[in-house]
Design goal:
The protein has 377 residues and is of the alpha/beta class. Helix content is 39%, strand content 20%.
Length: 377
């Protein structure tokens, strides 16, 4: 099977969508399919090549009004129009981008099968009038033109039906996946001491962790504010800076908050080790969480979560079992739920529930479900 994946950014760009696509295409390659990825130029600056067996082509674009979602890629449509007939399946990712709707339009003109995974969340940091215009001009018909739509959650499916009038029978609910740890063993005491020492964490404190782009919509500022009201905590923020880091550092200094650690460049192995010693994972986003794959990463390490009730996040939380939901930007609720987990007598039960729960999201099983959409729709 010859597959074309079209997305806004591709590996080594980091994010939930990028991780989703990489896991998916790796499995198609392993299964004997030919895969090509088309995207905008991302962090590595390369225009073409091969990553992990996946051929890619990246096009230079430019942002209108400084808005990432309004990135126009002039040379992509002609390339797609000339080459799209070579592929058996075209799979488009991410609502709100030029690459999405223009590819779906070309597929419709060419009579090509196109699968659309919008990773849709109603909350966004875009100005409301811009989102309204985009939804009116592009989103509705692009949803309706796609051969099939893969929604990550039941919440997403419900929104697509109610807001964009997509026929329910054309929507498949297939959640995000996670690479399940193979033969994972508990971290040793010596290894825990090493990782605490390496990142200068206080070994006598509980550890709170969050992972994601350091950006305004991720709401790390609300976690910091909540932590400032608590004592004896290490707070670790892991992610690449998307313009918010300086603001966070300034707030920490001005308010003399201790034990806040912002880590931009750490290895995947250390990230996993930091997760494994964490007591609570916090996702304090105020917008744009279609799913929240980092929640599954935390749970796969037995870490209960506190998460903002945005997008499809609520579909992942079994209240009081693997964590708690909070209202976006509500510092008091974040603080209260962190304390609830740290002080809970059933903490060990929560950890075990997390480990059992994530087994439902094994990428190998998710891949088979997506493959079935490719071959049957």
């Amino acid at each position: 099977m010859k597959i074309l994946i079209v997305c806004n950014q591709f590996y080594p760009a980091i994010g939930g969508v990028e991780t989703h696509i990489l896991n998916l295409v790796e499995r198609f390659i392993r299964d004997g399919s030919s895969v090509k990825v088309i995207s905008s130029v991302s962090t590595d600056g390369k225009k073409s090549g091969e990553i992990k067996g996946v051929s890619y082509r990246k096009f230079r674009g430019f942002k209108m009004f400084g808005i990432d979602a309004a990135t126009i890629i002039p040379n992509m449509p002609s390339f797609l129009y000339k080459n799209i007939s070579k592929y058996d399946v075209v799979h488009v990712h991410s609502y709100g981008y030029f690459v999405s709707w223009v590819t779906i339009l070309i597929c419709k003109i060419k009579g090509k099968k196109v699968i659309y995974t919008p990773h849709y969340a109603d909350e966004t940091t875009l100005p409301k009038f811009i989102k309204t215009i985009y939804d009116f001009c592009f989103a509705g018909w692009s949803f309706r033109m796609a051969t099939s739509i893969i929604a990550l959650t039941q919440t997403e499916k419900r929104i697509l039906i109610q807001k964009f009038h997509v026929q329910p029978k054309r929507i498949h609910v297939i959640p995000n996946g996670i690479e399940m740890p193979k033969n994972k063993t508990a971290i040793t005491l010596d290894e825990k001491k090493r990782i605490l020492s390496k990142y200068r964490l206080n070994p006598n404190f509980k550890t709170i962790i969050t992972i994601g782009r350091i950006a305004k919509n991720k709401g790390q500022i609300y976690l910091i504010k909540a932590a400032s009201n608590l004592q004896n905590l290490n707070v670790i923020i892991i992610g690449r800076d998307w313009g918010e880091k300086d603001r966070l550092i300034r707030y920490v200094k001005e308010n003399k908050i201790k034990n806040i650690f912002i880590l931009e460049n750490i290895s995947d192995l250390d990230k996993i080790k930091l997760l494994s010693i964490a007591d609570v994972f916090v996702l304090s986003s105020i917008a744009s969480e279609a799913f929240g794959i980092v929640l599954l990463e935390a749970m796969s390490n037995g870490v209960p979560v506190v998460a903002s009730n945005v997008g499809g996040v609520s579909d992942l939380i079994v209240e009081g079992k693997n964590g708690y939901l909070v209202r976006p930007g509500n510092v008091d609720e974040i603080e209260r739920k962190i304390k609830l987990i740290l002080g809970s007598e059933k903490n060990n039960k929560m950890r075990q529930f997390c480990l059992d729960y994530v087994s439902n999201f094994d990428w190998d099983n998710i891949y088979l479900k997506i493959k079935n959409v490719y071959t049957t729709d």
